[in-house]
Design brief:
The chain has about 230 residues and is α+β, with helices and mostly antiparallel strands. The chain folds into 2 domains: about 1-115, no CATH class; about 115-230, no CATH class. It is built from 6 helices and 13 strands. It has helices at about 1-15, 105-115, 135-145, 175-180, 200-205, 205-215, and strands at about 20-25, 30, 45-50, 55-60, 60-65, 70-75, 80, 85, 90-95, 120, 160-165, 180-185, 190-195. The strands form 4 sheets. A 5-stranded antiparallel beta sheet has the order 2-1-5-6-9, with no helix packed on it. A hairpin with a 2-residue loop joins strand 12 and strand 13. Helix 1 (about 1-15) packs antiparallel against helix 2 (about 105-115). The longest helix has 12 residues, at about 1-15. It starts with a helix and ends in a 15-residue tail after the last helix.
Length: about 230
């Protein structure tokens, strides 16, 4: 199960990321015992009814930690809606930040497991936390883009970015390397970082912002929904 592999990868990184509670819905209150103990919660089925259709869907898997490092995780499974249209799944991890954790390695492992159409690791600071209108590109960037929002392109680049499916075809690794950006293939997909360290976003946002702006210029026009940098 994807949830098992994701939780295993996170827990193996640092004991500070061991969950305290798990659930298939809010509120998240069931005490976490072990990864093996979670197996009945990875993707239990539920029956949904609507538009004269009955369908079995996999419930999401949620977990959280209230002690430092405080964080939250959510696996939503790919599904088919009542109209027969596929809805892409989503993996979300939101965490308090700590410099001693290898966030980059965790992100790379989660991308290798989930193989998303687009994935992002980012450290949000004041310049990018202004209140955004619901379903706007800025809102999608802040909360993590849902599958439907990617039909209009990528909301914005974070510090590290995984481009899969048709987005991977937009990546010219040779060109990125020539401009000083780190990019490498993961199968047919690609992982790109904007600067050397995630904490560059907090330590010198201006430099990060300039780098991101220059990185986006190396892609086709219209790929990114947010074209300008915060002022």
């Amino acid at each position: 199960m994807v949830g098992e592999r994701i939780l295993t990868a996170i827990c193996a990184t640092d004991e500070k990321l061991r969950p305290e509670y798990i659930s298939n819905a809010e509120p998240i209150k069931t005490p976490f015992v072990s990864i093996d103990d979670c197996k009945e919660r990875w993707a239990p089925k539920a029956t949904m009814r609507g538009l004269g259709v009955v369908a079995d869907v996999a419930l999401p898997f949620l977990w959280k930690r209230d002690r430092p490092i405080k964080y939250y995780g959510h696996v939503m499974h790919t599904s088919t809606n009542f109209k027969g249209q596929m809805t892409l799944g989503q993996v979300i991890v939101r965490s308090d930040i700590e410099r001693g954790i290898d966030w980059s390695s965790i992100f790379g492992e989660l991308c290798a497991i989930a193989k998303p159409k687009f994935g992002m690791l980012h450290l949000f600071t004041a310049p990018e936390l202004a209140k955004a209108e619901f379903k706007s590109p800025q809102s999608s960037f802040q909360i993590g883009p849902a599958g439907w929002s990617l039909d209009s392109g990528i909301p914005n680049l974070g510090w590290a970015n995984y481009l899969g499916d048709d987005f991977a075809a937009d990546v010219d690794i040779t060109q990125l390397a020539a401009h000083g950006f780190s990019a490498h293939r993961m199968g047919e997909d690609c992982l790109i970082t904007t600067t050397r360290d995630l904490f560059d976003v907090a330590d010198n946002f201006g430099t990060f912002s300039d780098r991101r702006s220059n990185l986006k210029k190396l892609f086709r026009t219209g790929l990114f929904q947010i074209e300008t940098e915060p002022q």
